[in-house]
Here is the input.
Amino acid sequence: MSTSKLDTSLTKELEALKQEGRSKSPERIIEQYIPPKDESGPRYKMVGSNNKFIRLNSNSYLSLSNHPELIAAADKATHKFGVGPGAVRFIDGTFIHHDKLEKRVAKFADKPAAKIFNSAYTSNCGLALTLSNKKTHWIGDQLNHNSIIRAMRISNIPRENKGIFKHNDMTDLKRCLGEVRPDIERIIVIFDGIFSMRGDYAPIDKINQICKAYDSKFKDGVITIVDDSHGIGAYGDTGRGTSDFCNASPDIIIGTFGKAFGVNGGFIAASKTIIESVRQKADTYIYTNPLSVADCAAAIKAIDICDSDEGLNLLKSLKERTAQFRQGLERLGKESIKGPHPVVPLMVRDTPKTHDLVKYLFDHGVLVVGLTFPVVPKGDETIRFQINACHTSADIEYVIELLSTFD
Here is the structure.
């Protein structure tokens, strides 16, 4: 047997992606981490380049991944239990660190219970498999993350059991709720907390208020879910995410340890009954090995830091650097989307210019993400900047200066 015929077909498909502008560039490889020094934040060396790069494309908002206490916690757990669990959770693959992390994140999210996954992506998919039946209707924001879209697809509900409301449009959310068939028993309203390409947030307080008006009309009610992967740890006065910022919590919170907490993995936080249902029914939990004890130990330490004075100082620094960058863009007359989140989009609105600016920044030691047509509509071309707590005032001013000199 040979894959030559398949290879030929796949080559054509790959070429089609390239022609459509949807092909991914070759992956750059980080080969060295250079710790902060003097007025400079950390730098990174890339294979094939002599530059030292500032990462403005990292989700590690609190810059905890190189924190010595996280590294020490991961090292201690690894030496005690090894590098892998050796089995799925149901077959004695559950270690004390898994249990401790679930209790810790439930407390942090202010929910009765939590269940951890390998990622927020698999958390979303597992939750969809758990909650969906023939009498379930899903409603989502039109700009929801791919993991939510995929979760709604694999839930195996009919097309007519889905609704999409215009981005953050509460009137359109009411329309979707009003169109649900009377025989439906359970409505799921799901949305991102922070929309990762824009840095704006879902108004959870308003969403809860609207959903409450429809709750009594359905047997199992209207359940609200936020995927707050970009908010948890990095947003709100105490770092508890979009719920913290809006002073309102949905019924279920999905989050990640792989962004502000600087580690790996995802979680669902909800009622004890929902979490037990997840444990019993979510394929993406049942049939895969869990996080390593190292990941769990580091995540526990990250949450502890977030709940400390050090964490509040990191949040303060993050807010200051974000404000500094946004003010710099305003000073240059650059267009962005307003908001306090450290995801700061620069609206370029031109595909060739976006590519040129990304390259210009790369050539000057700055890593960013450019979004161009057809990934985004023509006229919405954007560069996403992501501020981290490790960025210094000098780092931000350097990037603003580069933007001011780009022609």
